[in-house]
């Protein structure tokens, strides 16, 4: 894939165990639990550290990835197309953030980007994708994007897309995901974005968006997204039953 591969939508990939724990923690205490970390902007120099982090804490367990076994079982395996999709779309735009401890360890990552207008034709980055499993995910995201924009409601708006969130398993339930989203919204507003959008493939990521004041505008049940033979393309484990789009005015 080339630079044109990053112009389409991306799923809001949040490690669901982190979000579930964060959801429970926030229900008991609405204030952020102060931890020994700070949030900083991701730059292109952070690429390999970010990808290493995502391989460890995210790629294999995201509901859609897990449903179709996108990542092989071997310990060092990965999906190169997913890695390129992440790095090209979100690591060089000064919109993505990471939570870093005082010792320099990354404990959380949020990848954001600017959404481009949807195309009526299948984008080249999907057509040329050589990984058939990842192509299924890209086509789902494009299908969602076309339906969200069907009435032209967001035409002409500058939209910040929340794409990927992942948190170190040892730091989950501490409000890091919430802090990363809130800081992203702050930066988006400062940079002149009108809307923040998240396509939530996980039930719990949707709960996070709802708690942070996002509005649900579209929902697609996985059972309704079928192949030529009428079989669901994705069958994530419960409670991940739908991909839901949320937006928030900035």
Automatic annotation (TrEMBL):
Swiss-Prot/TrEMBL keywords: Acyltransferase, Transferase
Molecular function, one GO term: aralkylamine N-acetyltransferase activity
Catalytic activity: serotonin + (9Z)-octadecenoyl-CoA = N-(9Z-octadecenoyl)-serotonin + CoA + H(+); serotonin + acetyl-CoA = N-acetylserotonin + CoA + H(+); serotonin + octadecanoyl-CoA = N-octadecanoyl-serotonin + CoA + H(+); dopamine + acetyl-CoA = N-acetyldopamine + CoA + H(+)
CDD domains to which the protein is assigned, alphabetical: NAT_SF (cd04301)
Its EC number(s): 2.3.1.87
Top-tier EC class: transferase
InterPro entries membership: Acyl_CoA_acyltransferase, GNAT_dom
PANTHER family (UniProt xref): AT07410P-RELATED, N-ACETYLTRANSFERASE-RELATED
Family, per entry: Belongs to the acetyltransferase family. AANAT subfamily.
Protein name: aralkylamine N-acetyltransferase
The organism of origin for this protein: Melipona bicolor
